[in-house]
Request: fold
Amino acid sequence: MLHIVVCIKQVPDSREIRIDPKTNTLIRQGVPSIVNFYDLHGLEEALRIKDQHGARVTVVTMGPPPAEKGLKECISLGADEAVLVTDRGFAGADTLATSYVVARTIRKIADIWGPVDIVFCGKQTLDGDTGQVGPGVACRLDVEQLTYVSKVERVDAERRRVRVQRLLEDGVEVVETSMPVLITALKELNKVRRASMPGMLRAARYKPVVWTTADFPDLDRAQIGLKGSPTIVAKTWVPQIKAVKTQMVAGDTPEAVAERLAEGLWADGLPQRLGWAT
Reply:
């Protein structure tokens, strides 16, 4: 049976995010947290593979204790197990330190519940928006990686092969590779299901597995938390809102509207700025 690990992260709801005008930092107090929606598309694809081929789906996240809520949501959707990696030693991690801890967690999961065939991550998170953790985890695990996946065409459990479509800037690329593999999911990959009543009841009773730094005896503490995070935020600021002038152009006929619009653009100097007239 396939073993699939899905990496998720709880992030501030982007619809509720506000900026402190004095400090130019995010105001997190009172802002609800949600599961990063790209990660949910990764979970949905894992559950679809489980429905079709049979699989064990394990969800993992690194974060503070309240991140347990996001793991329970994944359990309600159909995940089998959930692991919360939480410790003050992990606090302040950038993408480099995060990928180190997540990769170590996946190795530990493989030791306990069996080898991992597929790892799903979201393309990026709504708060960091870097898209670096998934590829970083793949490099640390030394497995194949398929990024920006918009469709999983085929999973061959017997031959241990996966074929996907990758959405690129200039088209779609079809790629096939062997397991184990890490896949980063786009929102075009699927439509996330709703939790069932039995799933919600199971999630309400479920207690995620919790690991701290003590559960990783050979963890290199120089690679976790702030010590393992070379990223430095030198400055943050809120872009200034620029006023945009608008003017209604009216006329009795389309021709009259077009004529008045052309006159207005000419008077504004647009043709000259574009090099259309001398």
